[in-house]
Amino acid sequence: HFKYAMRDAMDISTIGCAAHCRLDNGNFSELRLAFGVAAPTPIRCQHAEQTAQNAPLNLQTLEAISESVLQDVAPRSSWRASKEFRLHLIQTMTKKVISEAVAAAGGKLQ
Questions:
Q1: Of 4, 13, 64, 65, which has the maximum CB count within 10 A?
Q2: Domain CO dehydrogenase flavoprotein C-terminal spans what residues (predicted)?
């Protein structure tokens, strides 16, 4: 799980993300990706999860997942962050949490 917040006092997340994956012979066999504060309620990113299904563990797949996640989220602008900034964070955090989930599952992105 990774959370981005602007400050420590009154710590309200700008975006929160969690990922879990299972690997099989250098491919994703399963990816679960969820975001908080990226839509009106916490969401699972089903387009991104489908993009990963049986895909190889490489940077091209990671980039494709970070693009497809934009189909799943619906962030809004607020006093904490603009919609555009949240979309940037979502793509960046997607890559970070998936990379960490792959490492935790014993894999390595090529």
A1: 65
A2: 1-101
Residue 15: both structure tokens together? 């975006």
Amino acid at 8: D
- Summarize pLDDT for 48-58 with one digit per residue, the tens: 999 999 999 99
- Cα–Cα distance for residue pair 97/48, rounded to 1 Å: 13
Please give the model's pTM, rounded to 2 decimal places.
Answer: 0.85
What does the pLDDT look like over 40-90, one tens digit per residue?
Answer: 778 999 999 999 999 999 999 999 999 999 999 988 887 777 889 889 999
Nearest to 52 by CA among 16, 74, 75, 19: 19
Q: What is the dihedral of CA 97, 70, 14, 88, to 10 degrees?
A: 80
Instruction: Judge contact between 94 and 69, C-beta under 8 A.
Output: yes
Residues recorded for the chain: 110
